[in-house]
User: What shape does this take?
Amino acid sequence: MRILANQTLAVLIDVQERLFPHMQEKAQLEDNVVKLIKILELVGVPSLITEQYKKGLGETLPSILEAFTTVPSQAMRAEKKHFSALDDDAIQLQIQQLSPKFLLIFGIESHVCVLQTAIDAKEMGFEPVVVVDAISSRKVLDKEIALARMKAEGIRLTTIEAIGFELCRVSGTDTFKAISKLIK
Assistant: This one.
């Protein structure tokens, strides 16, 4: 099944100031998340940013928020207390109003909020797609087990480069050239 930009909503999960410093390979993760956001904007995919318990975990990283450059921004923000973004009624309503077929999921932590959101998305009839090089956990094993569980649950896994070109669909365009420059 092809993932189409006009049927996709990106869900960036909990890349927050007090949680992020504890992630594995955090510098690469930050670069990858920024790169993916820029690709999503190039192909016109809207984004929803979730923030888990902001009082305790802080705001989304400034570098991540600054990556959203489209004016007006295509990114929506929502605070949550549930681990799964889809357990939150307000977030669920926002997503349902956009009626995407695909939820492109990335962020932290792989084995908690990312995993639970992806599982719930599948159970609710969405097609969850997790971008594996744009997720992380505090421990390597937790991410590995989360990916194994996602695969067992029938959740699609992809990479930034693969999804960028899949959403772009055709070479030789300005969008293709911009994506190519980002992934090098």
Notes: The chain has one domain: 5-183. Strands lie at 8-13, 47-52, 75-80, 102-108, 127-136, 156-158. The CA atoms of residues 48 and 76 lie 5 Å apart. The mean pLDDT is 94.
